[in-house]
User: What shape does this take?
Amino acid sequence: MTIEILPARLANQIAAGEVVERPSSVVKELVENSLDAGATTIKIDIEKGGAKRIRISDNGSGIVKDELTLALSRHATSKIKNLNDLEGICSLGFRGEALASISSVARLTLTSKTAEQESAWQAVAEGRDMAVALQPAAHPNGTTIDVVDLFFNTPARRKFLRTEKTEFSHIEEVIKRIALARFDVTFILSHNQKVVKHFKSVNNKSLYGKRVAQICGQKFIDHALEVDCHHGDLHFTGWIGLPSFARSQNDLCFSYVNGRMMRDKLINHAIRQAYSDMLPVNTYPAFVLFLELDVREVDVNVHPAKHEVRFHQGRYIHDFIYSVCHNALSDNINGELLPEQADQSLAISDIQPEVSTVNYPKSQSVEAHDGAHQASRDYIKPLTKVADVHSQPYQNTNQGHQSNYSSYTHSNNQVSRNAAQAYQTLMTPLSEGEQSDGEKPDNEKLIGVKSLSVANVNEASMFTKVVDEQYALINLADELRLLALNKLEQAVKFIEVKNRWQHDFVSQPLLLPIKITLDQQQVVFVERHATALKKIGIVATVVTKNSVQIRQFPALLRNKDVNFSFNKLLTLLLVDDNNELTNSDWQQAFASLLTADSYDNKQAENLISLSQRQLNSAFEQQLRLNSVVVDLTSSITKLTNAE
Assistant: This one.
């Protein structure tokens, strides 16, 4: 097979496969061209669902006679001139492929008149030979494009069209989406000579809600919060539905970037995260939201249909959208939860993320996250920048914006040295010998640290060897005993948990919530003890009568399996659910989760050393309670008889 240049007609039809998917695609491209031309009134006339005729008329700037033929050529556009223009696209269209692609699969008539011309001119093109015929015509200022017999020359494409009703519903959806983005333009949609939709222009911002109600329904406006937030070059406005207005389908999810309708994954994820667990399972939020930013900070040339964009600072945009939406929802729905969240331990409430939170001015409608909001935040947080700690803070790698993001911590939050150092130590693995007795007093030692130095020779000589990764042979008062290491560690953890019980434990959001199947008794237990679970760092939501969703888990258990640990906790606490659980019951169960699954010789040696320091006078008692004497009598007898 030889390589050949494709004929212009075939090349245009291939390109039309991307641009012209169905009649609604034609409507979208032509209406966007009208908006780029500055039209304030656009009429869309449809016949037989668009398969027979699509006629778009506008009162825009029009096309001069000498450029009509050129307008139907591939890669011909007035939107961009050079590479610099491509890096900052302000218009909806810019590729110059729409008219050429449409004319290759339909009979297209383009009639236009500019204000400077005395008469209008008309260009006619058909898909068969792509030849353009030019002739004078009668037409007011503006442009009319008439597309007849779509896919007349490609029967294979035509047979894939759906029913007239289905195709028109797609066209109606496109017009609704565009009408939401341009309140200043009048849209008139007709089907088979009957006006179906008439959206009148609105130039007063106070009346924007009327058009939104006309498109999304009055119930949406009645159950929506209006947001309007400026931050630097970012402007985020629109309406976000209350969780009580959750939808069974995503038919009211409208997002726009610089006036361009989007189905962008980053934007949708940020909005969905903002709702957190406020939405019922298998439901969707409702929103109409507009993001305006510098055109050079976003690349719109990454999707064939321009439904997705790429932000130069994706994480920054994500967190900005999340913050505005989450704060709006929290302030109006979960305001009663804030006092409880504000009482969390210093290790959480006083430490703010450096990058993932935007520091908004207090005068704006949406303020920066305080400790309460950060404690409930679902998006994964990086290590924080903490003053007065001898550890390397998180550094922003984006040097070009260092001044903007170098410090988003709040000046009104004073972090205690102990809390800050405890948090930083918790998030940083310790190397052997790094921590010794003289570095910190006992009340600053963190739960879960195994690699502690051996400080006493007698402790080292007491330990002999680990057996089956769970037990240790020890020499206690000239007796050889088999010690259950997990029981000893649980006694140590219990003391540490008890000492810290007055503060909530550090909780970490999971990257993806985990759904766990339980029996009905366990689900009732989780629902009843949600507050106690939250105290130890577990945020669980009942999804159905047989399942729960884990959204946050204790940082101390970050190396444990969430499903296994949660089921183990319920098993320990449900032994006798008839009696009211005490703090001691919760402390014992949580301490059990903190124990290791297996031990090597070094870990066993360190555990015994730590136990003596923590248990003090009760150390020997715990050793005897959690061990048994190894009876060597029978073994000695066998060896003696063997002689």
Remarks:
- The CA atoms of residues 79 and 94 lie 5 Å apart.
- The chain is about 35% helix and 20% strand.
- The two ends are 91 Å apart (CA to CA).
